[in-house]
Amino acid sequence: MVKAPAVDVTGTRTGQVELPAAIFGLRPHRPLLHQALVIEHGNARRGTHATKTRGEVRGGGRKPWRQKGTGRARHGSRRSPLWRGGGIVFGPRPRDYHRKLNRRERTLALRAALSAQAQAGRVTVVQAPAEAALRTALAARLLQAAGAADGAVLITGAADAALARAAANLRGVRVLAARRLAIRALLLPRPILITQAALAELQEVLAA
What we know:
alpha/beta; 7 helices
């Protein structure tokens, strides 16, 4: 049984909340977490890096010196890879780093990441303030009361749009939607704050 502290709107701890064992009570699968993290990093790359080969470098049409009689090595172009300013032999070329991770594997990786953070005592369930009274200052006080003054990962639900907007202005706070989680953010050694609406959505998405 995995439990997490609960914090209300005023920042007061109201007790503990029992987290779903199907999401927060798993044994972390390190190889799968590593695979999911590598794929997520690769999918975030643009892949537009490029260098010019000797056929793409400008110039080099004239032979530097005659073939024989100079005592120097023979060369046909100043754009040879042997010359400064010449082409690159095996430099990076534009490519696609995208790789696919099966939905079942991604779901298991998200469960493993959340379970690792819950077992480390970094998960806190927060009650989202009312939208009419929500300001960035109130969101900052809420995070500070939850022990996340130096930075945190805030997981919000569809009903927490105002809290997501207010917390996005805070330095060091990463706001994630419950239906669009990122492995990179969940593996950070930071407190993870989950709203009650997000907890319900996580059960709907990950526990199925």
